[in-house]
Write the structure tokens for this entry.
Amino acid sequence: MSAFWTCMQSAGSRRMKARFEKLCVCLIVCAGMGAPAGCRTPSSEAGMTPEAPLKFHLAWAPSVMREQAALGREIGRALGEVSAFFGAAGYPVAPGDLINTVVILEWTPEARAGLAESFGMRSEDLLETLAGTVVERTLYLVVETRYRQIWESLYPDWPWEADTYHRLIVHELTHRAHEAVAMARLGSADAMGPVWFFEGLAVMCAGQFDRGDPPMTEEELAGHIGEARTPAASYPLYGRLVRSLAARHPVGDLITRASQPGFPYERSKDK
Ligand SMILES: [Zn+2]
């Protein structure tokens, strides 16, 4: 089994065209915004509120139909945290520019079929560990009970906690904000850098897999990511790599340099 829950942050998924409108009941809820807790950065600032209400599509998740107001607040809080994180890094993003629609689904055959059609995929090609993704301005999430099943099967060493689902939401929205920053800077999501970096950044922003380990040494870092190596796929490792780099460099500087050859190491003088 994959060591990942699947957040589908890939070039392919970014090109997917969501076509779920005809399959879903559209419910609209105001995303009430509490004060953001901040994104585990020392200088987080208060997040902003989305200018427009989020649209919720819950036809695939009747079990949470009554919880949509609370979900709206949860997502609004996550948007505030992500906005504060990127703002502190010198890349301000407006929460209202990130998403305008939320699709939440239970892992039923009907929901899987509809989701696969939305993504232009075959239902059997959807990974069992799919937990969430953002396509264009739509945030897709499985319901919390489904995510807990995935989490407990993949991460027995990391106990489920009260905010584990919230952290998933922050993780997915971090990708959306990071992609928006990359597109604004260089016109391509490739500017998000290597997979270990953009996943590790999302893990760090979301406060996932953090046991307060000390930063890795230079030698440890180089062993994992020196000479453009791709480390073994692991969210806990990716998070630790980016936290270790963030202990040495400003996060905004890392975001800026992520797409340079040989990142995070300087390019050789003779190119
Ligand atoms: Zn991810």
Residues 10-49 have pLDDT under 50 and may be disordered. Residues 189-257 form one domain.
